[in-house]
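Final report, closing paragraph on structural work. Over the funding period we assembled a curated collection of sequence-structure pairs, and we close with a single example.
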Amino acid sequence: MSARQMNPATPASSNSLPRLIAWTAVIGSTLPEIIWQESGHQVGCWFTTIESLVIVAAALLAIWIPSLRALVRFLVAVALLNLVWGCISPALVALPAVRAVTDNASWGARLFLARTFTVSGAILVSFTLIGSGITRRDLFLCWGNPAAPAQPIPFLGLRKSVPWTWLGPAFVLVFAVVLSPYLYLTVHPNFSFSERIVRTFPWSIAVATLNAASEEFQFRSVLLAHLRGVFRPAETILLTAVFFGLGHYYGQPSGPLGVLMAGFAGWIWARSMIETRGGVWAFLIHLIQDIVIFTFLAVGAGM
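Its predicted structure, as stored:
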């Protein structure tokens, strides 16, 4: 199956201006914030708001330029996600009424409640779907064909097509093996408190399920659907992967290595969606990876 077959709505060629605008929005939504903060300055909600408003301004301008009109919903979605994760969600978590609950809650309940506020991103980007004609299948909110062939990935040594029923479990294992040493070195778990793993495991599953479903919808389903027919699949996958990776600079995993790890994971999950025409493997791999992360956090030095 060729890249064109994976996405029949893909145009034969892409104008350079839409590509420039899309990449500028994705990189400009997060990188200025990282550079500003790493140079020793304080980053407040105002900074994120300015980034998002600039992207919204580009979206409004794109309405009047025929070659950019197809990017409008994507640009608005990027601006909303940037605002939610950088400003709205942290502000909601810091509300006195919320703090009154979380300060007296268990670690698992506190983490779950904090993560529920990031679902506001899923709610807001859903508004960009109104009137778009995008269907549930376009959003990969369906079973699809989990056994569909995966395209070769030469730089990983995968030189021929294999079914996702083989590649999906392989990536589950690979991500867990790679992530565990990283978390051990960065989270500094104290396994003498291993009973916490058992005690908090139901919360780890609950938070991982919520987080995986929410992030896959926000950072893959909606963005890929908005870019369908604008760029070739390889570029839409890379755009969403870079956006997801940069957003993890202060996340978990974090730092430059965290950006690469999250970006690569996002790239794999987006490929699985397009190649299987469904979200099963993206959700499952993401879910298990998050369970590993939250399990380490449960016995982390900062708990």
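The CA atoms of residues 56 and 124 lie 14 Å apart. The mean pLDDT is 91. We thank the funder for supporting this effort.
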